[in-house]
Write a structure and sequence with these properties.
alpha/beta; 12 strands; TIM Barrel
Length: 254
């Protein structure tokens, strides 16, 4: 089994880290630079920073946020939100991101994934798939875009497979049904995608107990465990999570 990585996530709005439930009811969770420094010291393996309002506000990712955060960490930084062109990707990588995450733009223009992977390398391209349950879809999960506000009419698992063919290096499925609830990752959603692709999968949305992290790997098939609320509100620290996983027989970097 591969080494399991822990990835705190900074959801950004108006220059602050925020956290909601089901993508709404947003609460402040602190300063992004202070949070980034703190998580690196705590032992985070990677960090995600998602500009959650960029697509809805029809604007690009704020590059100054990327520069400020990347300047204080040495761990890989994945940035998403409002990335809709090769030029956007170039600018975000130049600002200090190691990887970019695309969601709505990839659904709208799948060719962008192919072009980006060809130009920058698959390892730098993450496709984020926000999904929700819809029994009319073959897998039972539908893609949603625009910060979870619009159903895309596409099957989430079929879309994940298409992203792999287009050259994406990693898939980040987030369940709208689980987001921010701390009720556990949507294991059925994560597993359906992990089983359908041969890429690393990031479990996201809903981690609330130590057991949830373990289930994300064993039941969800994830390689990377992303969490926000439990870390921002200091319910657990990263060391606790890693020690728990190691004691359960998983490989982690302590």
């Amino acid at each position: 089994m591969s080494v399991i990585k822990i990835m705190p996530c900074l959801d950004m709005k108006d220059g602050r880290v925020v956290k909601g439930v089901h993508f709404v009811n947003i609460k402040d969770a602190g300063d992004p630079v202070a949070n980034a420094e703190f998580y690196q010291k705590e032992g985070a393996d990677e960090l995600a920073m998602l500009d959650i309002a960029a697509t809805l506000e029809n604007r690009k990712t704020r590059l100054e946020w990327v520069k400020n955060v990347s300047s204080v960490i040495a761990i890989p930084l994945t940035v998403g939100g409002g990335i809709g062109s090769i030029d956007d990707i170039e600018q975000v990588l130049a600002a200090g991101a190691d990887k970019v995450s695309m969601n709505s733009a990839a659904v709208k223009s799948p060719q962008l994934v192919r072009e980006a992977a060809g130009k920058f390398g698959s390892e730098k391209i993450v496709v984020a798939i926000d999904g929700r349950r819809n029994k009319d879809m073959p897998s039972g999960f539908e893609v949603v875009v625009s910060g979870g506000t619009k159903p895309a009419g596409r099957d989430a698992v079929v879309w994940a497979q298409e992203c792999q063919k287009l050259g994406a290096g990693m898939i980040l499925p987030t369940s709208m049904d689980g987001d921010g609830t701390q009720a556990g990752y949507d294991l059925a959603f994560t597993r359906a995608i992990a089983d359908a692709v041969g890429l690393p999968v990031i479990a996201s949305g809903g981690a609330g107990t130590l057991e949830h992290f373990y289930e994300g790997v064993v039941k969800g098939g994830a390689d990377i465990l992303l969490a926000a609320s439990v870390f921002h509100f200091r319910i657990f620290n990263i060391k606790e999570v890693k020690e728990y996983l190691r004691n359960k027989g998983l490989q982690v970097n302590l």
